[in-house]
User: Which sequence fits this backbone?
């Protein structure tokens, strides 16, 4: 494991880079296999464990051997043509890649008239970008001879994707999900069960995503011989941030090629939402070395950053260590993690991936908060102008694109000269209930009842279909200390 | 047997340059000692050793249910057989802890526990007893206060050092420096999964003793001590450790006896927290007395 951070945040190499200097002093590049701009002076393919002063391995010793094994397996796999061919095949013939790049022509009017292009990760199998990462990691799990994968999930998207990959590759799957989130996302619980996974409600702590990660880590410590922890975002201990990014780089590579093909030039800006940061780092990566492309990450502003009820980790957090990495962190004066709040379960996380912390410090990416209300307005706009129901997470990127579009076109004669790519990280099927309640289309209680009924029916079906789910559940409860 | 001098010597510490191998009260490893202050943890373990037994190391969480109870409980531990006391800082994301300790630390935080009170607790216990008092903490609370500031105040309170369950030597440069400066013990963990290279590195970075986790898992009581614990102790000694203590899952005198047969110290946590929860300080004291009865190898009980 390397020991020296590549560059100090004070250097602001991006400033020099963006103003035309040729040599950004970013992360080091070690990946010879992919990408157009590699080598010294590139921001791309930063290998970890450190991104500036962020990243690392703040982990119990018990797990270090497993992290070493994972790192070794990943480093070999990513230069192994057979592995890369397997990924390419699954991306194409299972997930449905490349995902489309769709121009949102009517939505554009709300973004100052800038041309808006949506990178359609919502069209992937399972409905979000999450599938890119789980297929890669599940293949690595098999390479390591592991028979079982565990995952955390907030909204259930990563849990569903993990259950899907496990079913596809014949792995046992246990998903930890905060009890509060299980209730809020009952249909996704049923989906995971239908796919043969065991869902373990986590009742300790705040009963949300961060506690689900804690519980998954406890499981991993106890079962590391047989089990791979399929972390769902570009956070956590090395090699997770660089590895999860690697599996999502396809988003940015495709988007860059598609925008060049459709418009003949690079975009002025790329927008993405930030939970842990995986969809964002995946699309940003394609453009990191394109000095003319401004990159924007939109964090969940919840009720508003001034209310304290938000998940704007980079905007308001301070550096600390959580879940294995040093990064920005929502924490109190004592270093206790502060609970985050967002209408979007997928952004409701008090930490953020370390590469984003670095990119924020050096100024290569701008991070801004978007409130629940702004996100929901953009959500509705996209539904009505383009006939696309976005995930509420992705609606944060859309709301950000509206602001960026208005800003960039403000003093422009022809606003259509401005081109913005938005990562539409997922579709909104899972969010219909939340959105319907937000817009008073149905009253929340009726909706909850309807969902609960549907779930009971789905769970019955799942139990009948998967005779092995009962022993798994019992075991899972035991691991969960119940 | 816990006191075989051939196993406890520093024969593998070939790189020692500061004479620490002649002195039982210095670092575990060889190359990192700088402070003149002797290790309080090592001294406590060696006092037990001189009595022909392993040391008893008892864990309780700070502020559970309040700060004064923790001080009273710490004093009770020392008076009923604990040689070293480990006070845990309640933390929002305790990934190495099982249900019992999680419940206690969650309650402590809900009751308003503040990290700065750890220094009052340590001072309160060290003022009243001879036990070495260590603080067990996840790393972020230390980072937040500042590693140097935390170390300075811990040393001023009479604390022996830190046990750091989510800090590995590779990430510990600030802590190596501060612990050196203030003469504090660095208790890193080794696990059954640790490779020989990692054992060597961790032993080298440690001061006071090395914490061997008996099983792959989190804190909580277990019905049996796994056989991996003994081989881990052997391997950790082979990597150069002078003192190796075993914890995780130890809950009764019988298990203490088994581990005392091959380790320098036995660490008990969850069982004590459950006793404190169910019967307060009196129950804690009673269990400690009972646990300490297991410290001598069978047939050598003395009073
Ligand atoms: C559709 C969608 N977008 C974004 C996210 C946020 O995660 P990340 O920041 O890792 O992309 C999630 C997480 O669940 C999601 O489901």
Assistant:
């Amino acid at each position: 494991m390397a020991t020296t951070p590549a560059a100090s945040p004070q250097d602001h190499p991006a400033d020099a880079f963006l103003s035309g200097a040729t040599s950004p002093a970013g992360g080091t590049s070690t990946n010879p296999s992919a990408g157009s701009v590699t080598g010294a002076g590139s921001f791309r393919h930063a290998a970890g464990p450190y991104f500036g002063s962020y990243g690392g391995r703040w982990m119990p010793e018990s797990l270090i051997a497993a992290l070493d094994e994972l790192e070794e397996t990943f480093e070999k796999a990513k230069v192994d043509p057979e592995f890369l061919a397997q990924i390419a095949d699954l991306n194409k013939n299972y997930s449905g890649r490349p995902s489309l790049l769709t121009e949102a022509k009517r939505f554009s009017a709300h973004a100052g008239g800038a041309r808006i292009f949506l990178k359609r990760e919502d069209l992937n199998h399972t409905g979000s970008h999450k599938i890119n990462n789980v297929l890669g990691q599940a293949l690595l799990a098999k390479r390591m001879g592991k028979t079982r994968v565990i995952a955390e999930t907030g909204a259930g998207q990563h849990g569903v994707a993990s259950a899907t990959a496990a079913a596809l590759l014949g792995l046992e799957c246990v998903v930890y999900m905060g009890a509060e989130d299980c209730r809020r996302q009952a249909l996704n619980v049923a989906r995971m069960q239908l796919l043969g996974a065991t869902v373990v409600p986590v009742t300790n702590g705040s009963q949300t995503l961060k506690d689900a990660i804690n519980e998954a880590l406890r499981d991993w410590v106890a079962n590391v011989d047989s089990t791979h922890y399929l972390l769902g975002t570009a956070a956590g201990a090395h090699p997770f941030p660089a590895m999860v990014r690697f599996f999502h780089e396809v988003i940015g590579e495709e988007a860059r090629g598609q925008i060049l093909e459709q418009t003949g030039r690079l975009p002025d800006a790329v927008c993405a939402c930030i939970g842990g940061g995986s969809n964002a780092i995946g699309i940003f990566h394609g453009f990191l070395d394109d000095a003319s492309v401004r990159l924007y990450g939109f964090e969940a502003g919840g009720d508003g950053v001034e209310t304290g009820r938000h998940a704007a980790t980079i905007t308001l957090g301070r550096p600390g260590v959580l879940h294995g990495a040093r990064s920005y962190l929502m924490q109190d004066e004592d270093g206790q993690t502060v609970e985050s709040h967002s209408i979007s379960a997928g952004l409701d996380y008090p930490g953020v991936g370390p590469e984003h912390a670095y990119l924020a410090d050096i100024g290569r990416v701008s991070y801004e908060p978007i409130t629940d209300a702004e996100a929901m307005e953009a959500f509705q706009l996209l539904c009505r102008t383009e006939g696309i129901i976005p995930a509420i997470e992705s609606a944060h990127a859309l709301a950000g694109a509206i602001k960026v579009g208005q800003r960039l076109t403000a003093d422009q004669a022809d606003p259509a000269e401005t081109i913005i790519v938005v990562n539409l990280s997922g579709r909104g099927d899972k969010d219909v209930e939340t959105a319907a309640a937000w817009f008073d289309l149905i009253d929340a209680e009726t909706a909850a009842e309807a969902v609960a009924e549907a779930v009971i029916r789905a769970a019955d079906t799942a139990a009948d279909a998967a005779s092995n789910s009962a022993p798994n559940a019992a075991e899972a409860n035991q691991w969960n200390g119940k | 047997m816990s006191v075989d001098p051939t196993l406890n010597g520093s024969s593998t510490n070939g790189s020692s340059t500061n004479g620490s191998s002649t002195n039982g009260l210095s670092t575990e490893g060889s190359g990192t000692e700088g402070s003149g202050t002797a290790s309080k943890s090592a001294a406590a373990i060696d006092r037990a050793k001189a009595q022909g037994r392993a040391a008893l190391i008892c864990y309780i969480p700070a502020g559970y249910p309040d700060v004064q109870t923790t001080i009273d409980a710490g004093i009770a531990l020392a008076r009923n057989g604990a040689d070293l006391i480990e006070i845990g800082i309640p933390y929002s994301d305790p990934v190495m802890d099982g249900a019992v300790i999680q419940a206690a630390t969650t309650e402590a935080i809900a009751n308003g526990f503040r990290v700065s009170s750890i220094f009052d607790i340590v001072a309160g216990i060290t003022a009243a007893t001879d036990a070495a008092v260590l603080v067990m903490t996840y790393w972020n609370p230390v980072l937040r206060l500042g590693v140097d500031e935390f170390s300075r105040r811990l040393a001023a309170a009479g604390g022996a050092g830190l046990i750091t369950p989510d800090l590995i030597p590779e990430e510990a440069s600030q802590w190596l420096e501060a612990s050196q400066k203030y003469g504090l013990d660095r208790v890193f963990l080794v696990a059954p999964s640790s490779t020989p290279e990692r054992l060597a590195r961790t032993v080298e970075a440690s001061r006071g003793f090395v914490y061997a986790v008996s099983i792959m898992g989190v804190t909580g009581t277990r019905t049996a001590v796994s056989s991996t614990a003994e081989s881990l102790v052997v391997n950790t000694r082979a990597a150069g450790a002078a003192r190796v203590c075993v914890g995780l899952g130890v809950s009764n005198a019988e298990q203490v006896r088994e581990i005392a047969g091959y380790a320098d110290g036995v660490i008990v946590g969850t069982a004590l927290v459950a006793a404190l929860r169910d019967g307060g300080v009196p129950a804690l004291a009673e269990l400690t007395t009972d646990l300490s009865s297991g410290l001598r190898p069978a047939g050598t009980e003395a009073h």
About this structure: The radius of gyration of chain A is 21 Å. The pocket of pyridoxal-5'-phosphate is lined by residues A 128, 154-155, 157-158, 233, 273-280, 346-347, 391, 393-394, 425-426 (CB under 6 Å). The longest strand of chain A covers residues 294-304. Chain A has a mean pLDDT of 88.
